[in-house]
Design a protein that fits this description.
Blueprint (H helix, E strand, L loop, with lengths): L7 H14 L12 H10 L5 H14 L3 H16 L5 H18 L8 H5 L6 H11 L9 H10 L7 H11 L2 H17 L38
Helix pairs in contact: 1-10, 2-7, 3-4, 4-5, 8-10
The structure holds iron/sulfur cluster (SF4).
């Protein structure tokens, strides 16, 4: 059965609840500047946040600017990040990116999608995280969790990541757009998980449109009025 799109009212309630649950959501990557965030996100592709934090906890006290990391060189950087998957290509990309930041952006992280996506190793997803988290822009990085939650609940149905991204940016009320990314990831990671979603303990089960939610324990009759 195809999932129905959520109504405006459902979406409003959905995010009010997620906000109530986590009033100050933050990315689980450690960072203290846009530059540190950019590098952490680049390192996090196909790796866990925990493994990235372990590496950057050692790296950033030694080098946390474009110039300092550039000075380490590819081999120097590898000694800090070799516990992270794909570290060879990541080291190359990070050093090239630092070189471009120094050459074109006075060592700073640019605030536009175009300039971010021009950096080696920075795709749309990384650019979205940086624009949203470091610069407070209403961008939406769609990862596997957000893609699943959007499609499953009827919040943002789409065949691919880009469709879901566009739909999310369109339907999420302005008041939630800056934090929505984190709320959705955390909801997908800890509650609306891939195999056995915890619909029985889900705080938004009454506004979720997933037809199978009752089989996973969602309460049947929570009366939320006027949800059409
Ligand atoms: S009710 Fe189930 S499917 Fe719907 S959002 Fe909650 S965990 Fe996900």
């Amino acid at each position: 059965m195809p999932v129905k799109n959520m109504t405006k009212k459902q979406i409003q309630t959905f995010f009010e609840r997620l906000r109530e649950q986590r009033p100050n959501p933050e990315t689980e990557l450690n960072y203290s500047s846009p530059f540190e965030l950019l590098i952490a996100v680049m390192l996090s592709a196909q790796a866990t946040d925990v493994s990235v934090n372990k590496a950057t906890d050692k790296l950033y006290p030694i080098a946390n600017t474009a110039q300092a990391i550039f000075n380490l060189g590819v081999d120097g950087l590898k000694t800090y990040i070799k516990t992270i998957g794909l570290y060879n290509s990541k080291a190359e990309n990070v050093i090239k990116t630092c070189g471009i930041l120094l050459e074109l952006h006075q060592g700073q992280v640019p605030e536009t999608r175009q300039a971010l996506e021009a950096l080696p190793g920075v795709g749309r997803k990384t650019a979205n995280v940086v624009l949203n988290t470091a610069f407070g822009q209403p961008a939406m990085a769609v990862d596997t969790h957000i893609f699943r939650v959007g499609n499953r609940t009827g919040l943002a149905v789409g065949k691919n990541v880009l469709e879901v991204e566009h739909r999310l940016v369109k339907v999420i009320p302005k008041e939630f757009i800056l934090d929505a990314h984190h709320w959705l990831i955390l909801h997908g990671r800890y509650c609306c998980i891939a195999r056995k979603p915890k619909c029985n303990e889900c705080i938004v089960s009454d506004v979720c449109n997933w037809p199978e939610r009752f089989e996973f324990g969602a309460a049947k009759a929570i009366p939320i009025k006027n949800l059409t």
